[in-house]
Amino acid sequence: MTKTVTDLAARQIILAPMEGVIDAPMRARLTGIGGYSRCVTEFVRVTDVLLPERVFFRLCPELLADGCTPVGTPVYVQLLGSDSHALAINAQRAVQLGAHGIDLNFGCPAKTVNNSMGGSILLREPATVSALIKAVRDAVPSEIPVSAKIRLGYEDSESLAEIVDGVHAAGASELAIHARTKFDGYKPPAYWDNVRSVMDDERRTSTIINGEIWDVPDSQDAMRRSHCGHVMLGRGALSAPDLAERIHRNDVDALPMPWEQLVGEVLDQFLCSDRQSARHIGNRTKQWLAYLKRTYPQANLLFQRIRTLHDTVGIEKAFERHMLEDLMPSH
Question: Less CB within 10 Å around the terminal CB: N or C of the chain?
Answer without folding.
Answer: C
